[in-house]
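Appendix B. One record, verbatim.
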Amino acid sequence: MGGLLAGLGWCARHGRLALVAGLVGGVAWPALAEAMRPTITPLVVALLFLAVLRLGPAGMRAGLSGLGLALRLALVLQLALPLAAIGVCSALGIMAQPLAMGVALMLAAAPITGSPHIAWMVGADPAPALRQMVVGTALLPLTALPVFWLLPAFGSHLQVVASVARLLVLIGLAGGLALALRHWRIVPGSAPVLAAIDGTATIALGLVVIGLMVAVGPALRAAEAGFFITLGLVTVLNFGLQIAASLIVGRQDPALAAPLGIVAGNRNIALFLGVLPVGLVSDLLLLIGCYQIPMYLTPLILRRWYRVPA
């Protein structure tokens, strides 16, 4: 057992290597990415479980401190922005296009579970990012409902309600089980165990990234115009949201600029894959795969930027 914990701890300390390996592996070996595709949803739910398991009840309570600001920000990021995007795309007559629906879903998603870790990597306080991740994920079934309602791919209102109900079940089961394990001390909060959880999450994240690259490798090798358009769009959205949010928030509190900028641009759209219509999932794989690239390059590219407002 000691050797296993040590090995997982090593994985946690070298997390960035796992992310790069996942990106490269998914692009370089399309057969591997295709084989990993069915595991995307279970792995994304497992990552949510591991994030809550890492936090435990005390961490969740700490994450909910300063709730008012987090609630307002979640409503802006996860509700106002996607509804505005849907309005613009509908006015332009392109709302039925997969790319437009993908952008709306990306904006509707909660912050990625790794947001606090990215904040730490750029030298910022991870606590505000943690708070926004906790609040955003808890509110997700409510904020996603009107967005799903307005997307053409969902069809009937019953299908929308069913999708939101599945999302609520996924979040509830993953989070509830993790909190129960920590509350009853079946999983202790000791340093070696927490490091092992981090290592397990690192491995799971590397594996899920391989699956998410399933549409990127073929599109890149074929030099498809759609690939470069999609990559450019998600990169501009990701970095643009981060920079805009950090500037706006930084005027009020410079210490919040980096962590809240990070959560604004890096969203857990992959969590939606388990509840979306099957046809829409296939259409979104290229966008979601491309979106991982600026997400994992955030600590490298925007590190200097966040030192300025923070």
